[in-house]
Amino acid sequence: MEQSIHRDPALFYWILFPITVVMILTGVLRHYATVLLASTPKKQTLPALREQRSLLRGINLRTNAHAISPSSFATRKIYMISAYKEGTFLKDPESRGKAAANPMTDPAAMEGMMGMMKGNMAMMVPQTLIMSWINAFFAGFVIMKLPFPLTLRFKSMLQAGVMTRDLDVRWVSSLSWYFLNLFGLQSVFIFILGNENAASQTAQQMSQLSPGSSSSAASIFQPGQDPDKIFQSEAENLEVLEHEYILKGVEERLLGSLA
């Protein structure tokens, strides 16, 4: 027998709809606040850009090695390993082998840390205020029922703040609706603000994790890291890489599939 609950239809207009609208408006305001708080990036010198792009070149070579022929890969591999080991791409070759400078004394590193703190504050403060607002006014409400069945594993995720053991797992509480909006509005923010927006926390984290993204390329060398050690590590990764050409024997495979 399907479980039914007599709910006030006004819950949609006074809880579900306001939470959704507030989450969307907060994301838009967070985007513009992040843009206003962001400091103008300083123009990097040519040796610094060469150092960063050279490491990304080695990473891309490892990632896409299967797409080039063995001779092309061998030529690039020998050149990159030799340059990495000799320190050809270092912006300051004279500091090779010396201890890394203290990031707290580096103005550029301090500016980067302040930018990260501003971004984290733009994320944490609005979410804390919205969480307190929902707990104060909408805690304990069951606002909607999902039209598809779910397993009991989703009960803790969909019914946060509602301590009922026998309630059907498809019912969603107001607090859980907040969390669903927190991670599910990325497509809405992309539609409103475009792909490069600061409204979605998940999108920012994923862009930072991608080694080929523009945000990670600018900060590929974190404060306190030794670029020479990173180059040596990348040279070892290239040395142990086993190359497998994706087009090897493609003619025989094509003829075999047509036979």
Helix percentage range: 55-70%
The total strand number stands at 2
Assembly form of the protein: single chain
Mean pLDDT: 81
* SSE-based structural type: mainly alpha
Low-confidence stretches: 207-218
Largest sheet: 2 strands, antiparallel
Strand content range? under 5%
SSE series: HHHHEHEHHHHHH
Distance between the termini: 57 Å
Q: How do you describe this structure in short?
A:
With 259 residues, the chain is mainly α.
Question: What does this 3D model show about the protein?
Answer:
The chain contains eleven helices and two strands, in the order H-H-H-H-E-H-E-H-H-H-H-H-H. With 259 residues, it is mainly α. The radius of gyration is 26 Å and the shape is flat.
Which helices and strands, and how do they pair?
Layout: H1 10-37, H2 46-63, H3 70-86, H4 107-137, E1 142-145, H5 155-158, E2 171-173, H6 174-184, H7 186-193, H8 201-209, H9 214-218, H10 227-239, H11 250-258
Antiparallel strand pairs: 1-2
Helix pairs in contact: 1-4, 1-6, 1-7, 2-10, 3-10
